[in-house]
Amino acid sequence: MQYDPIKKSLGQIFNKTPFLRILFYKLLDLLLLRTWHVKKEIRIWSRNHKGKQHILDAGSGFGQYTFFMSGKNKNWSVEAVDVKEEQIADCTTFFSRINRTNVVFGIADLTTYHKPGTFDMILSVDVMEHIEEDERVFRNFYDSLTPGGMLLISTPSDQGGSDVHDHGEEASFIDEHVRDGYNITEIQEKLKRAGFTRTEARYAYGKPGQTGWRLSMKYPIQMLNASKLFFILLPFYYILTFPFALIFNWMDLAGSHTTGTGLIVKAYK
């Protein structure tokens, strides 16, 4: 299942003006359950970090989390890095056009990128499942944090993340992953080997979240992979399904899950 081409096509459509780009971010905020969980954790962290903070968005992608964090507090400076040159160039242009001056973008490979004792928080959303040398990245993250700094990770779990082998399929729904997902104990052990003294992990995408994700993301992407003509039908599809997806997402965010296809992991230096 090809996910990146769909994301790229949608990004091109919404990138024509700053207004459309911001609208795209707002739609991602509503549709992507991981955003609900990640923003929840950032808001909790922000309660005790209202002053000057230096944040790394490690694998910034379209820049939606950089947009959120840099707009949430003017005292926060955000460094956003990604391995994809075109996304860094695109984000640099957009953030310059909206005059968001507390952000800097750069091209970086996380297996080699580190800035000792620099960041108060590092955010890594849907990145680690793409990197084979994950423990090297975790060590770089640890070195780059200030004492007491926090690493926040969102990644698929090994409980069927990205609908691995769903409905008899032999490949992950998102086929560019190097691993199907992390075991909740495994990722914490890897973080401790990297130097982190305290870790916390919880499941996201429990039963409600999995249902909401299929309605809001999986089925539309499957249709768009079948034919780009489904772009015309998408508004009508979401009129019917979106209210239900929102309810399921809220239930997932509010609940506690004994298992789930996603993980929210925090590690402290």
Molecular structure report:
The chain has 269 residues and is an alpha/beta fold. The protein has one domain: 3-Layer(aba) Sandwich (Rossmann fold). Helices cover 47% and strands 19% of the residues. The protein is built from nine helices and seven strands. The radius of gyration is 18 Å and the shape is globular. The model is unreliable at 164-173 (pLDDT under 50).
The CATH topology label is: Rossmann fold
Fourth-tier CATH superfamily name: Vaccinia Virus protein VP39
Choose one word for the global shape: globular
The CATH architecture name reads 3-Layer(aba) Sandwich
> Which spans have pLDDT < 50 for at least 5 consecutive residues?
164-173
Helix content: 40-55%
Strand content: 15-25%
CATH class: Alpha Beta
Q: How many domain modules?
A: 1
Termini gap: 37 Å
Strand order of the largest sheet: 3-2-1-4-5-7-6
Main β-sheet, in a few words?
Answer: 7 strands, mixed
Radius of gyration: 18 Å
Question: Which structural class best describes the helix and strand composition?
Answer: alpha/beta
- SS field, number of helical segments: 9
The whole-number mean of residue pLDDT values reads 90
Summary tags:
269 residues, alpha/beta, Rossmann fold, 7 strands, globular
Write the layout of secondary structure elements.
Layout: H1 4-14, H2 18-31, H3 33-46, E1 53-58, H4 64-72, E2 76-82, H5 85-97, E3 103-107, E4 119-125, H6 134-144, E5 145-156, H7 184-193, E6 198-204, H8 207-226, H9 230-254, E7 262-268
Parallel strand pairs: 1-2, 1-4, 2-3, 4-5
Antiparallel strand pairs: 5-7, 6-7
Helix pairs in contact: 1-2, 8-9
